[in-house]
Design a protein that fits this description.
Largest sheet of chain B: 6 strands, mixed
Number of strands of chain B: 9
Helix content of chain A: under 10%
Mean pLDDT of chain A: 96
Radius of gyration of chain A: 13 Å
Shape of chain A: globular
Structural class of chain A: mainly beta
Shape of chain B: globular
Strand content of chain B: 35-45%
Largest interface: A-B, 23 and 24 residues
Number of helices of chain B: 0
Helix content of chain B: under 10%
Strand content of chain A: over 45%
Oligomer: heterodimer
Number of strands of chain A: 11
Low-confidence stretches of chain B: none
Low-confidence stretches of chain A: none
Number of helices of chain A: 0
Order of helices and strands of chain A: EEEEEEEEEEE
Distance between the termini of chain A: 39 Å
Distance between the termini of chain B: 36 Å
Mean pLDDT of chain B: 96
Radius of gyration of chain B: 13 Å
Largest sheet of chain A: 7 strands, mixed
């Protein structure tokens, strides 16, 4: 069964850091690009960041560029999001999503259940 | 940055056809993907590359894209289709960033 399981969310104070992880199973992880998408409470979806199969192509939303870093470890079938200088507006459910192809510019065909990040003092 | 505009809500009676639009500047030149999200659940891809369906998605779901408007069409709407629907594209003009529409709440009357 194809599965993505996120972890690492929680309550954090403004200005602090958090690292999210996404464990993939049921497919050949290093054949596909991967992404993070977030959803603030009661709001719509927002693409956060994406990384190609070999980490050769990486992109970020303007809202997180310079603060967040996406990475992957193909040997561990894992995707990560290092979030620094967190702000209240980063509060959201963070989804890990698999791309249809190895490049980043395709649809998200598999989604995890998400991990909640709350930034508050 | 590229903007996608969706109507906040669409209502339709069971058995009828629902059409959800996604507007964007020359969106017809881009590949549009559509996601369904039910309350408390993760999104599910229902249409990709304008009009293709992933395996397991009913034929009732179809898509089209031309000019400045992409459309998700749901035929013979069922109560279980009630959900939020989001369109999504890649903005090649801004370093290939992902862009989502604001979402449309489909209500089955």
């Amino acid at each position: 069964e194809v599965q993505l399981v996120e972890s690492g969310g929680g309550l954090v104070q403004p200005g602090r850091s958090l690292r999210l992880s996404c464990a993939a199973s049921g497919f050949t992880f290093d054949d596909y690009a991967m992404h993070w998408v977030r959803q603030a409470p009661g709001k719509g979806l927002e693409w956060v960041s994406g990384i190609s199969w070999n980490s050769g192509s990486i992109g970020y939303a303007d809202s997180v560029k310079g603060r967040f870093t996406i990475s992957r470890d193909n040997a561990k079938n894992s995707l990560y999001l290092q979030m620094n200088s967190l702000r209240a507006e980063d509060t959201a459910l963070y989804y890990c999503a698999k791309a249809q192809w190895h490049g980043t510019l395709s649809a998200f065909d598999i989604w995890g259940q998400g991990t909640m990040v709350t930034v508050s003092s | 940055s590229y903007v996608l505009t969706q109507p906040p809500s669409v209502s339709v009676a069971p058995g009828q056809t629902a059409r959800i639009t996604c507007g964007g500047n020359n969106i017809g030149s881009k590949s549009v993907h559509w996601y369904q999200q039910k309350p408390g659940q993760a999104p599910v891809l229902v249409v990709y590359d304008d009009s293709d369906r992933p395996s397991g998605i009913p034929e009732r779901f179809s898509g089209s894209n031309s000019g400045n408007t992409a459309t998700l069409t749901i035929s013979r709407v069922e109560a279980g289709d009630e959900a939020d629907y989001y369109c999504q594209v890649w903005d090649s003009s801004s370093d290939h960033r992902g862009v989502f529409g604001g979402g449309t709440k489909l209500t089955v009357l």
